[in-house]
Amino acid sequence: MSGPLQAQTSPPAAASPSESELDQKRHDMEALQSAATVSVEQKRKIEAEIEEIRTDRVRLNAALIDTTAKVHAAEQRADEIGERLTTMSGSEDAIRRSLESRRGVIAEVLASLQRLGRKPPPAILVRPEDILRTIRTSIMLGAVVPELRAEAEALASDLSDLANLKTSMAAERATLATQMADLNAETTRLQGLVDARQKALAEAQTTLDAEQRHAAEIAQQTTSLKDLISRMEGSDALARKAAEAAHESEVAQQKAAEVDADSIKAKVEAGPFRDPARLAPAVPFADTKGLLSLPLSGRIVKVFGQDDGYGGTEKGVSLQARQRSIVSAPADGWVAFSGPYRTYGQVLILNVGGGYYTVLAGMDHVDVAIGQFVLAGEPVGAMGDGSVKTAAAIALGATEPILYVEFRKDGAAVDPSPWWAKAALQKVRG
């Protein structure tokens, strides 16, 4: 009596988790808590490090450039792993489709092997009455078995490839998870450094806010980038000051070149972007051809001079970016404009000296202010998630954010390709 009664009143054994399942859940919870603790400790360490170098402009600049380079490298590696995973997924789908299409053959092979295993050929000497049937079966098997063997070997090969592919994909996903963790850590560090840099401008924040509002009013009144640059440097105090600084730097460079042209050549050969303490470009912008890095890790989708689809040609380069990619300054320069402009999205215009300007458009936000001097490789903004469409993104039908880059000389767009380093072009073109 007690047995049936207990069976009715007690819950089924399967409904209660086993000790091993509970242990696994405890282990998973501890791992999550440990990861969260490491993340907090890492953030505190980053904050302490940034606070230590906040007042040291040279160290801060060096840290900004170095961290931005690490973020770009991590984004590039993550993109490469993502592309490999996409290729592997395509291969997995192809193998699965192949196996699915041969489902009938698989069933036939398995059935034949099963029959052979369960009903081996009869012993001729023991049962002589089956001699004729045995001969007929042997003739049939002689014709069928080679074909079955070939099919079985093909199936085994496909299954082996599928298993190896799954193992490789699991390894790639683990690597991607590690890369994303590194990327998140470097991005956190970079944001802290950017905040520290901008705090140095806090004393002039009232002036900056006024100038930013003035810049927005000018942007609404202009109809072209050429007009925008001209109006900004004509009526905006900080933009005018930046233009004057660029002119003074250009004059100083020309005088230095007249006195010692070899020293300028030596600086170019040694690397004009190595000194993080510089307050002006080390060499003229025209001498940096073949030395500039692209502003972000992305793929070139349109080049200068290409048909723009509207009867004209492209005046710049369009880069397809990762969501929320960090954008860096391609060259040393003074910020001539920073803010939204027409259908370009958030725009940054740098006066890089010698009558040259670089335009970066399509960003989600810009982290530098008008009049500020920025170094090549220094972070200046970030892309969005692609939900807000700029004119460049709409023209391409892109779902990912698009960064538009344009170089201008004396009011006209120029081909930027001679300035890009070969290594940078190889990366974005695969």
TrEMBL record:
SUPFAM superfamilies in the cross-refs: Duplicated hybrid motif
Gene3D superfamilies assigned to the protein according to its UniProt record, in alphabetical order: 6.10.250.3150, Glucose Permease (Domain IIA)
Segments forming domain M23ase beta-sheet core: 314-416
Bias (Low complexity) ranges: 1-19
Cofactor(s) listed in the protein's UniProt record: Zn(2+)
UniProt keywords, alphabetically: Hydrolase, Metal-binding, Metalloprotease, Protease, Zinc
CDD domains hit by this protein: M23_peptidase (cd12797)
Record InterPro entries: Cell_wall_metabolism_enzyme, Dup_hybrid_motif, M23ase_b-sheet_dom
GO molecular function, one term: metal ion binding
Annotated protein name in UniProt: Peptidoglycan DD-metalloendopeptidase family protein
Organism: Lichenifustis flavocetrariae
Higher taxonomy: Bacteria, Pseudomonadati, Pseudomonadota, Alphaproteobacteria, Hyphomicrobiales
